[in-house]
From TrEMBL:
InterPro entries: Periplasmic_diS_OxRdtase_DsbE, Redoxin, Thioredoxin-like_sf, Thioredoxin_CS, Thioredoxin_domain, Thioredoxin_ResA/DsbE_sf. PANTHER family: THIOL:DISULFIDE INTERCHANGE PROTEIN DSBE. It is a single-pass membrane protein. It comes from Teredinibacter turnerae (strain ATCC 39867 / T7901). Belongs to the thioredoxin family. DsbE subfamily. SUPFAM superfamilies: Thioredoxin-like. It is found in: Cell inner membrane. This is Periplasmic protein thiol--disulphide oxidoreductase DsbE. One of its GO terms (cellular component) is outer membrane-bounded periplasmic space. CDD domains: TlpA_like_DsbE. Keywords: Cytochrome c-type biogenesis, Disulfide bond, Redox-active center.
Length: 173
């Protein structure tokens, strides 16, 4: 019986190692979202540079779009931005959500790096981001023509992500 007690730490270690290995093999860019299959949360916010609300979830319906959460303080957003410009040039509808950012900095960023967005929603206090379950930037939600979230991608959208994950869903009839 005393010999079995010696193996308890080894068993505990093995169980913990299995949990850690399982966790490390998960795709960190695919965080589950409770909103997939549900409408974009109700909101009415201004566009960057304005004070009065002029964009709502209802005003964006009609055709599918990518809702791209970004900010000037986000280094990964700088990496992602050139590819978003390419997608916009190809006719992909992209709506920006400037997350917890300053309007002046966002306007300067867009002037310098180009503006791929149909409109840029100012989420100054992060309220819409909170409703969407945003962990940080960049995050991209694929929203269908009826305003239903079909997919959530955490991290940079590049050509590989577009072709393998987003485009097949975006191009569905």
């Amino acid at each position: 019986m005393k010999r079995l007690k010696l193996f308890i730490p080894l068993v505990i270690f093995a169980v913990l190692a299995l949990f850690l290995l399982r966790g490390l093999s998960l795709d960190p860019s695919h965080l589950p979202s409770a909103l997939v299959g549900k409408p974009v949360p109700e909101f009415s916010l201004p566009v960057v540079g304005e004070q009065e609300p002029s964009v709502s979830n209802a005003s964006l319906q009609g055709e599918p779009y990518l809702l791209n959460v970004w900010a000037t303080w986000c280094p990964s957003c700088r990496v992602e931005h050139p590819y978003l410009n390419k997608l916009a040039e190809q006719g992909v509808r992209i709506v920006g959500l400037d997350y917890k950012d300053e309007d002046d900095a966002a306007l300067e960023w867009l002037s310098h790096f180009g503006n791929p967005y149909e409109s840029v929603i100012a989420d100054r206090d992060g309220s819409l981001g909170l409703d969407l379950g945003v962990y940080g930037a960049p995050e991209t939600f694929l929203v269908d023509k009826n305003g239903i979230i079909q997919y959530r991608h955490v991290g940079v959208v590049d050509e590989r992500v577009w072709r393998s994950k987003l485009a097949p869903i975006f191009n569905q009839p």
